[in-house]
Design a protein that fits this description.
The complex is a heterodimer.
Chain A: H1 2-31, H2 38-60, H3 64-89, E1 100-101, E2 104-105, H4 106-124, H5 148-172
Antiparallel strand pairs in A: 1-2
Helix pairs in contact in A: 1-2, 1-4, 1-5, 2-3, 2-4, 2-5, 3-4
Chain B: H1 2-17, H2 21-44
The chains are: A mainly alpha, B mainly alpha.
């Protein structure tokens, strides 16, 4: 059932860009001087865990294992973002951490993204013929070499992850990040 | 620590793109375990509520 596979492959690309959107946006927010807190960085790590599963789907073909990896990442991310949201609900001072986008803090958006991803994956796994049999020949549009958008998404994810590694080192070094970062560790902040 | 986990994930993505699945899976589970371990550390340490 090639139509199901093709649809599932395209939805994987869409999910990849939906995950990359907040990550690239968060880099933009960081560029303006709003440094990420330790839990915010952990949420980014969980987003990359989701992306790794999606990248495996795009690179090596659609497999239940790859969906499972992404869902494990999304569950971890929802737990981290959920804790941060609850911390700030319970905060007597109120206000939350950092700025807001469309009225919600970035960690609240992270929770929304993780829950939406889990719901979307549930739907994705229900697509008839969405998972090819081991012996089935894949549709050319659902292979790594046949889809430029899939390659673009994966290389963008790789670049974003590398940039985050460098920025996290600049902000925290190899130790623990400050709970309220005001400057980059590497610049003595 | 967080920079190290990001670096492991970057390596993982490189291995995924090279189709070295065993190494990629190892890096994935290592990074996820470290992420959850560091999350547990932040959930139990004495840091303020503001993060």
């Amino acid at each position: 059932m090639l139509a199901g596979q093709s649809l599932a492959y395209r939805l994987n690309i869409l999910a990849m860009f939906c995950m990359l959107g907040p990550l690239v946006g968060a880099l933009g927010v960081q560029w303006t001087g709003d440094l990420p807190c330790p839990l915010c960085l952990l949420e980014r790590l969980a987003m990359f865990a989701v992306i790794i599963g999606l990248a495996m789907n795009l690179r090596s073909g659609l497999r239940p294992l790859h969906y499972g990896l992404s869902m494990a990442g999304a569950l971890a991310g929802a737990a981290i973002a959920g804790r941060q949201v609850l911390l700030h609900i319970n905060d007597p001072a109120g206000g939350g951490y950092g700025g807001t986008v469309l009225g919600m803090h970035l960690y609240t958006w992270a929770l929304v993204v993780f829950v939406c991803f889990l719901a979307g994956t549930a739907v994705l796994l229900m697509i008839p013929g969405g998972l090819p049999a081991e012996t089935e020949r894949p549709d050319p549009g659902t292979t790594w070499n046949g889809n430029r958008l899939a390659r673009t998404a994966c290389y963008l994810a790789l670049a974003t992850c590398g940039i985050n590694a460098v920025l996290a080192f600049m902000e925290c070094g190899l130790g623990q990040c400050p709970d309220n970062p005001t400057g980059y560790w590497i610049f003595g902040g | 620590m967080l920079a190290l986990i990001f670096a492991i994930q970057t390596l993982c993505l490189v291995l995924v793109l090279r189709e070295q699945k065993t190494g990629a899976l190892g890096c994935f589970w290592l990074s996820l375990a470290l992420t959850l371990g560091w999350f547990a550390h932040h959930a139990t340490d004495s840091l303020g509520i503001s993060f």
